[in-house]
From TrEMBL:
Lineage: Bacteria, Bacillati, Actinomycetota, Actinomycetes, Mycobacteriales
Any GO MF annotation of the entry: metal ion binding
Domain Nudix hydrolase: from-to ranges: 160-291
Keyword terms of this UniProt record: Hydrolase, Magnesium, Metal-binding, NAD
Name of the featured protein: NAD(+) diphosphatase
InterPro entries, alphabetized: NudC-like_C, NUDIX_hydrolase-like_dom_sf, NUDIX_hydrolase_CS, NUDIX_hydrolase_dom, Znr_NADH_PPase
EC number: 3.6.1.22
SUPFAM superfamilies hit by this protein: Nudix
Organism whose genome encodes this protein: Hoyosella subflava (strain DSM 45089 / JCM 17490 / NBRC 109087 / DQS3-9A1)
A Pfam family the protein falls into: NUDIX
């Protein structure tokens, strides 16, 4: 019988429900009029934003340009659509002052700021990679308030791309979970198994394939938990959990998985608690050293899934 549980909280980057007002994207007169009171989120080439770990600093649109820049994206409308404030995002040099990143701030920002930052980074990343037509190779230009690009040679239109990926907590139905680490990660960091959905493949089939490829373990009773945008550069993480027999041999995929092993509930609980404590104190280095391993960061859905599993297991004990 599968050990059922649910996410205890909405994933950090899924908390905001922006009013995107898609119907205004091709209404240039409305957008130009709204620019007088618009706010602008600047992201530089490294996806750093002007702001702190708890708050984004938006600029007044007219202070940057007389009209919406051709490469800007209409992210959201705040308030009534007829009189609401337009919020845009654009690549640019940041003014002097504090800067932050989505990885650092995503779990600490308000739902509104997290939503603005996530959407802006995802769409701007797509623009960076879609400057030329995939059919004829001609240059493309942004249209529809940044939500599409049109080829200047053949007229083909392209739209922001999101790559689906699965991430799965493999557990034994009891008090053990299978975690792994990639060679490029910081020492001691372990997380859930994950991978991109291939063409013609369902998300559940991808869970089976990715876990089998990465650690050589067969899973069963796959259950969906939730999703989160992950704009690094433009993914959507689909969260699952599944059962596996710990007696199966673990065979790490060469070049992809440096190590994988089963962790106990006590080890996972300690690591999650240590990370939470480190976020509340300046003694983070000392606290992190006390844990068996370092879990995924709070901005990731992996952290939410692991935390929910711990809470569910403790509730049953």
């Amino acid at each position: 019988m599968i050990n059922a549980f649910e996410l205890a909280n909405t994933p950090a980057l899924s908390r905001s429900a922006l009013e995107r007002a898609a119907e205004l994207r091709d209404a240039p007169d409305v957008l130009e009029a709204g620019w007088k009171h618009a706010k602008l989120l600047l992201l530089n080439e490294q996806n750093h934003a002007f702001g702190t770990a708890t708050r984004l600093h938006l600029l007044a649109g007219p202070d940057v340009a007389k009209a919406p820049p051709s490469n800007a994206i209409l992210i959201a409308i705040e308030g009534e659509e007829e009189s609401g404030r337009h919020v845009w995002a654009v690549r640019g040099s940041l003014p002097p002052g504090p800067v932050t990143t989505l990885r650092e701030a995503g779990s600490l920002l308000s739902p509104r700021d997290a939503g603005l930052f996530t959407t802006a980074q995802a769409v701007l990343n797509w623009h960076d990679a879609a400057r030329y037509c995939a059919v004829c190779g001609g240059p493309t230009a942004a249209i529809s308030a940044g939500w599409a690009r049109r080829c200047q040679s053949c007229g083909r239109e392209d739209y922001p791309r999101t790559d689906p990926a699965v991430i799965c907590l493999v557990h034994d139905g009891g008090d053990r979970v299978l975690l792994a680490r990639q060679p490029s990660w910081p020492s001691g960091r372990y997380s859930l198994l994950a991978g991109f959905v291939e063409a013609g493949e369902s998300a559940e089939a991808c869970v089976h394939r990715e876990v089998g490829e990465e650690v050589g373990v067969a899973v069963r009773d796959i259950r969906y938990l939730g999703s989160q945008p992950w704009p690094f550069p433009r993914s959507l993480m689909l969260g699952y959990h599944a059962l596996a027999d710990p007696a199966q041999p673990i065979i790490p995929e060469p070049g992809e998985i440096e190590e994988a092993r089963w962790f106990s509930l006590t080890e996972v609980e300690s690591a999650v608690a240590t990370m939470a404590a480190a976020a509340r104190t300046t003694r983070s280095r000392t606290l992190t050293a006390a844990a068996t391993f370092t879990p995924p960061g709070a901005v990731s859905i992996a952290h939410g899934i692991l935390t929910a599993w711990v809470q569910a297991r403790r509730a049953r004990s």
